[in-house]
Amino acid sequence: MPLGQQIAPYLPLLRRYARALTGDQTSGDRLVRATLEAIIAAPEIFPHDVDPRLGLYTVFHRLWQQHTASLSAANHDEEGKAGIAYSRLAPITPKSRQALLLTAMEGFSPKDAAYLMDVSEDQIDVWLQEAISEIDRQIHSKVLIVEDEPIIAFDIESLVRDLGHDVIGIATTRDEAVSMAKSNPPGLILSDIQLADDSSGIDAVQDILKEIDVPVIFITAFPERLLTGERPEPTFLITKPFQVDTIKATIAQALFCNPLSLAA
What we know:
Blueprint: H1 3-7, H2 11-22, H3 25-41, H4 52-73, H5 81-89, H6 94-105, H7 110-117, H8 121-138, E1 142-146, H9 150-162, E2 166-171, H10 174-183, E3 188-192, H11 201-209, E4 216-220, E5 236-239, H12 244-256
Parallel strand pairs: 1-2, 1-3, 3-4, 4-5
Helix pairs in contact: 2-3, 3-4, 4-7, 6-7, 6-8, 6-12, 7-8, 10-11
């Protein structure tokens, strides 16, 4: 099978990971595009001794390492949101965040994460503990949950509160979500796609974003359907059925990449 056909099914997953890692849709997509261009220009860089998904992420990580190296060498004295974001992210190293996202969000084993990051499994364990410890100490925000299934909404609320956040409300429809966000602006939104009145969580979020700037995490059983390039797409995605570590890692990354959403 041609290499392009082998890696095509994994491109939506790589786009999700790249966006979460960079905290930005445009930057993440640019890195994925650069990954594909690099493979096309030099097919020999693609490792064929591992499965296609692992090979694809390997090439991506090589480019990401170059990207972070250039960021580390740059001057991070910018004022405004970008500068604040960097200073807030500084305590948790890029390596530890990568390890957490690779295992908790992308579902790679520690062994595979070690392969991707070219380190030992012991080092991955160290980085995971660093990331989790830093997250436990620092993140705190007000969260709006948009979910029409009561059991799922309860599970999400419990997880969010256990992580130290305040839940300002649970909305089951587009109108409820917009009303809650206006009356008590959240620092983070967790939203399902299909809501109780057949309205869309995506439309609800777009309405809210017209009024306030807030990070959003969409929760869906079919993340690839939101990463088609055919409509506005999310930066952060959680796949149903979700795991506690996935919720924790994604919330942490969304808030760290949007530090103004953190409570004082």
